[in-house]
Write a structure and sequence with these properties.
Elements: H1 3-12, H2 23-37, E1 44-51, E2 54-60, E3 70-71, H3 76-89, H4 115-118, H5 122-126, H6 145-148, H7 154-159, H8 186-200, H9 204-216, E4 238-239, H10 241-252, E5 256-257, E6 260-261, H11 265-271, E7 276-279, E8 283-285, E9 290-291, E10 293-296, E11 299-302, E12 304-308, E13 312-317, E14 322-328, H12 336-354
Antiparallel strand pairs: 1-2, 1-14, 3-4, 5-6, 7-8, 8-9, 10-11, 12-13, 13-14
């Protein structure tokens, strides 16, 4: 399926949509593109914006252009949440309370045996709130993703992790909003990919093509793999920028794409519902979906997002019917997310609000 088809499909959704933004928006976007091309935002590679289903801005800042596949790193995690929802909708996974260890009897016994590990659920991994000692933000963590990459069997690596402790400066689940304690854990999401694979009886990439990418018109996806051949559900999936827009539109339109219900509306709602609090700066987290509050003056705008290293972001803003895609190759650079946030807030949202 050609990229031009995706553009036409997205545009066709706008026929019954809202009035176009005023011309001042287009002028502001032109200024933004100029600033990006000047190098003010380092290696930003594309910016796409859709409103009410219509692609209203599309700019590329590298040689690849529209057809180039973008490695958006951990934005993949939100795709994994979509695939879990698709597996549940098909009856392959019972529900979010399904026990993780039940999918891996061949990998037992697990190291650091603990009855609480046997109670770990799909929802625990969807919300980054399992009791496993796994924290990518702590280089000393036993479950840090860099340690996982050194191991052949990533699912076994995860299931062998010990139960974490809660020092005085870390809130226990019982003392936390929503009854969960957040800890960013790529290994857990990688294991969720293995759960979907085992539950569906298909390779994760094949299930994704059938249940998600095909129905929304994404024709090409490039996965990364574990040493044992498991598609990496925790990061590294490459899609073109229009494909990322299509994923954002799926969240914005309650699981629908081109008048087809691809995911249950109840699932996309659950993905964008707070289930765990991260901290005061980053706010809440849904099912592998960030839930930032964007501030413009005194106004607070609630958003949902797929975020990845380097400031790669797909941001969904329901109250404005916007999907914003920004891709970069600013991997590992200090301030990369702040640069992307500046583009979103200071350029795009301010212009959109002024042009309504």
């Amino acid at each position: 399926m050609q990229n031009s088809w995706i553009f036409a499909a997205l545009a066709s959704l706008s026929l019954m949509g809202k009035p176009a933004l005023a011309g001042s928006f287009e002028i502001a976007m032109g200024k933004m593109d100029e600033d990006v091309r000047s190098g003010a935002f380092n290696a930003t590679t594309s910016i796409l914006i859709s409103r009410d289903g219509k692609l209203i801005h599309e700019a590329y800042f590298d040689e690849g252009g529209a057809d180039s596949l973008r490695n958006t790193r951990s934005a993949t995690k939100t795709v994994t949440a979509m695939l879990v929802g698709a597996a549940i909708a098909r009856g392959k996974i019972t529900d979010v309370d399904a026990k993780i260890t039940s999918f891996f009897p061949d990998k037992a016994p697990f190291e650091n045996s603990d009855p609480r590990k046997d109670e770990m659920t799909v929802e625990d991994l969807l919300t980054m709130s399992s009791l496993l000692e796994c924290d990518d933000e702590n280089p000393f963590s036993r479950g840090n993703e860099e340690r996982m990459y050194l191991i052949e069997d990533w699912a076994k690596f995860t299931l062998d992790l010990p139960i974490k402790g809660f020092p005085a400066w870390v809130s226990k689940p019982a003392d936390s909003p929503y009854g969960r304690s957040f800890s960013y854990c790529t290994a857990g999401v990688s294991t969720l990919g293995a759960v979907v694979e085992r539950a569906s009886g298909r390779k994760l990439e094949a299930f994704a093509e059938d249940a998600l990418f095909g129905p929304i018109g994404v024709s090409k996806a490039e996965w990364q793999y574990s040493p044992m051949g498991l598609a990496q559900a925790g990061g590294g999936l490459s899609l073109n920028s229009r494909g990322l827009v299509a994923l954002g539109e799926l969240l914005l339109h309650n699981g629908k794409s081109n008048n087809r219900q691809v995911l249950p509306a109840s699932w996309t709602k659950a993905m964008m519902t707070p289930h765990v609090h991260i901290d005061e700066e980053r706010g809440d987290y849904g099912y592998l979906t960030w839930l930032p509050v964007l501030r413009i003056g005194d106004r607070e705008i609630h958003a949902a997002g797929m975020f990845g290293n380097g400031g790669n972001k797909v941001v969904v803003i329901p109250e404005l019917d916007l999907v914003i895609v920004i891709t970069t190759t600013n991997y590992g650079q200090r301030g990369a997310h702040a640069m992307t946030d500046k583009l979103i807030v200071d350029y795009i949202l301010k212009a959109a609000l002024a042009a309504q």
